[in-house]
Structures are given as C-alpha cells and as structure tokens.
Design brief:
By secondary structure, the chain is mostly helical. It contains 4 helices and 3 strands; from the N terminus they run H-E-H-H-E-E-H.
C-alpha cells in the first residue's frame, strides 16, 4: 500500500508526538519519526509541518548556537500543542477502531439492497 496519503493525514499528530517529551531540531525530528517506523517520511514534509504547527501556536521555538555548523532551531510542544495532541489522539483512536472493524475479515457484514428501509 502506498502510505503517502496516509502520512499526509497524520503528519501533524506524528510531529507533535515526536516532540512531546523532548524538544528537537528539524532533522532530529525526522530521524525520530523514521526510527518510529515512518521510513518514507520526507524531510521537506516534516520541515513544512514544523513551520505550520509553529505558526498555529502549537509549538515554541528557540535557536541553539553550534560550534560545528549552522545554528539549530529547536521546536518544543507548548500547552496549546499538548491540547491539540490530546484531541488528535482521541480522534485517531476512534478512527483506528472504526477502520479495524471494517477491515476485520471475521466481522459479519450486513448486506443491504437498494430500497431496504432497515
């Protein structure tokens, strides 16, 4: 299955979850997501999501100087981001349960015919 479209739909919650316990800079967050199993995630997608979440007020940011290269911009989740993450967790749980039920081959399916009033 091509997971590209699935990733687009869950990228915000994935990024918020990746920084919920520890702040991180862009590529560090990409590595966390890949290590968690999202191997096909694109760098540009994550950077764009970080900017969007920051603009929406869900993340705070700060710059840390680096001796061996450019300064790094770190992102951390804030109270608004934690609220967003909690809401998206609930939405995900409900959606995943629904999809699991639909995809379960053991689940009996009621077949309806056009015109049925049931």
């Amino acid at each position: 299955m091509d997971t590209t479209q699935l990733l687009k739909g869950v990228l915000d919650v994935a990024v918020l979850a990746a920084v919920q316990h520890e702040d991180g800079y862009g590529y560090d967050i990409v590595r966390r997501l890949r290590a968690a199993g999202l191997a096909d995630i694109g760098d540009a997608s994550v950077y764009g999501t970080l900017r969007r979440l920051y603009g929406a007020g869900a993340l705070s940011s700060y710059v840390v100087p680096s001796d061996g290269g450019p300064h790094r911009k770190y992102y951390g989740i804030n109270d608004q981001g934690r609220e967003m993450l909690a809401a998206q967790r609930a939405d995900w749980s409900e959606f995943a349960a629904t999809m699991t039920g639909l995809l379960d081959p053991r689940r009996p399916r009621a077949v309806r015919t056009i015109g049925d009033n049931a």
